Each structure stands twice: as C-alpha cells, then as structure tokens.
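Key idea: predict the complex, not the pieces.
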Amino acid sequence: MRKIQVENIVRWVSVMLIQIMILNHIMIRGYLNPYLYILPIILLPGTMKGGWILWIGFLTGLIMDFAMNTYGVHAASTTAMAFLRIQMIGTLSGKTSEEMHRPGMQSMGTRGFLIYAGVLTLFHHILLNVLDVFRVSEILLILYRSVFSSALTFLLILLFQLLTQSSKRNAL
Amino acid sequence: MQNLLLFFLRYRLVFLFVFLEVISIGILVQKRSFHRSVFVNSAQAWVAKTIGVFGNTQNFFQLQESNERLLEENMKLRSLLQEVRGKLNQPLQDSVVDTVYRQQYQFVRAKVVQNSFNSRNNYLTLSAGKRNGIEVGDAVIGPEGIVGIVDAVTDHYTSVISLLHKESSISGKLKNEAYFGSVRWDGFNHRQAQLHDVPRQAGVVIGDTVVTNAYSKVFPEGIPIGVIKEVELKTNENFYTIELDLLTDFAALSYVYVVNNLFKEDLEMLEEAREDA
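Result:
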C-alpha cells in the first residue's frame, strides 16, 4: 500500500515539473500545447475515495492556473475530469474499483486503457478550451486546439506509460 | 431531517464537485477583482518566485540570445540618435525651453518572471511594480516591438495583458501610409496577428511594417508591431484582411520596458472638458 502512495506522489511531482519546466514552453505550430499534467489524476488508484480525487484534481488545476496565469480555467476542467474519472473507473474493464490499484494497460487491457485515457483527455481539453476561448464565433479555434492538443497529450501519456511499465518490468 | 441528512451523505461527492466547480468558475469570472485581492497577489508572487528559480536557469541558457537582442536594439537606438542630432543640427547641451522637447514618456525596465503564450488569453507577470512607478494602463514594449498593457500592479509585481489576449485590440498604422486599423490576435499562431479595418483605398504592401499610431493614449508613436505577411481583399468588402508576422517573440521574452505616459492626465483632462462642453 505504502509503495503505491510513494509511486503516485513521485509521479505527480515529476509530471508537474515536466509540465511547468518543459511542456509549457513547447508550442507546436505556434499554438498547440500538450497538457501531460492530467496523467497523475488519470492514474490515481481506483481504491482512493472520490472526495480525495476531486480535491487532488482541483488543486492540480489550480497550481497550473497560477503557473500559467489562466485564472481557474485549468482548475475547473481538471475537477470535471476527476469527476468523470470517478464515474468511469472500473466500468471499462468490468473489474470493481477495488481491483484497480493501478489503472493502466495491465489492469484494464490495452483497449480499455486507450478508451479510458482517451475519453478523459479529450473531455478535459475540450472543456479547457471552451472555458478559455468562450466565444461562439471562435468555435473553429476551440475544435482545432482541443483535437490537436488532445492528440499530443495522448501520445505523451502513452509514451510515459510505456516507459514506466518497461522499467518496472526490468526492475522485476 | 434524517432523510435530508441521508440525501446529503449520498450525494456528497456531487456536492463537493459542484462546490469546487463554483470556486473555479468564480475565479475565472472574477479575475479582475481577484487581481486586487491580497491572497491571489501573494500566491501569484510566491509561484512567480518559485518559477523564478527555474526561470533563472532558463535565463542563463538564453543569455547569449538576450545579449544579441540588446546589442541590436542599442544599434538601432544609436543610429536613431545620430539621425535626431542631425535633424536638430545643434549641440544637444543647448537648452531650449519648449514643451515639444519635454519628456513625454518614462521607461521602466522590468524582468519577465512569468509568461504564458499557449492559452487564448495570455498574461505576463513582471518583477517590478508600484515602487518602480508602474501604473495600471501603462504600455509594455519589448526590444523588438509591443508586448501588451498593464492591467494590475502590486508593490513589487505587475500583471500585463499580452497582445495575445481575446480582449487585446491595439491601434496600428501602416508605416508608409496614413491608414490605420486595429491589431488583434485570432488565437492560433503566437507569432502572428491580424490587422483589421484598413480601408480598401490604402496601398497595402507585403513586407511593410505596422507600427503604433499617434492616436494611442497608451503607446508612444512608431513602436513596431509586425510585418505584413499576407493581404486579402474580397471583392465585395471595404476592408482588408491582413496577416502580420509579429516582431515580438513572446516565447523568448526576458526583459521588457514599461512605458508611462507622463501627459496621460493632461489628455484625460482635455477629454473630460470636451465631454462636459
């Protein structure tokens, strides 16, 4: 149990540092930016109480807001994503949340995890851009930013998963 | 009573969710008044300081580039100085009391401690504030061109609305023509902005520079904004659609100047008088 806690804390800290120090400075085509910081929330243990997940999501988003001067946009969308995550966990793989200590490709199956992470990423990014742009006349911009940023984030999530899983296997 | 309690217990997760969302959306809606609140200012200053530590290492790697930019700017200013000296055609130490020569703009140097450019609405945080003479509404320019307008100041920090913001609209004119329009950002590429409302009779040439115009109360005249990249004129429209390459690279800003218009009060008094009349 202790091991899972340490693992989650280490993951949260390292992903936040990667996001703030590296990813926030990456601009693909001048406006596309990956938001890997949602990964630690996606991967929180399924046994965790819903209230905790919501608070962690909210605070993670709030820190991003302060780091990026965005005033509540990240907090709102990350909280909503955390709420959706609570509803989704376990339903995809058919397992109860008790079995989901580590949501991931191994516990959910590759397909299950792809859908789980994909839906959460897309949901988060769409909400983020809707709140940020908040103008009907710029709906095209919202779509562009959401879809392409989601694809970038999703690729990074897969990469992160593959790297950490293979290192775990090597350690065993 | 018991039922009510049970109801709350059962849906406590939903209530917590709604509560957190209300806080987040509240911050978003109230961002203007949040600037003034002590909590947010100190929290932002704290984050700015923490990021400042990382920023310092980043600054270190950008030193050479920053240096080159400054040298380039120096060179431009020096050649401008020569030009002005030539025009005056008299030694500068000669003192002539004339309001034309009175200093209109005061420049304050500030370091960028926090800078976003990947949102639709971007802000910068500068590590200089009221104590350095910065006021709300001051212009902010970089070595290459305009950056934005000050929207909140604390004693030591300044928040700037970047040109890369939904509500930014800055008056710009063609350098070689009298026509002007407003520069806005469409939210796509952070190196490009659009110039709107330039009438079709203007001779718009690709490669021309767009600068701030004299009608602005905020910006000094002639600060570069961007270079015209694409021009489009639809047959049934009276205004051009102009795509600009911005001269300021928002992703590489490390130092900026805050420009305080010393005549602003005069101008405002004049406008009030005109409204009263």
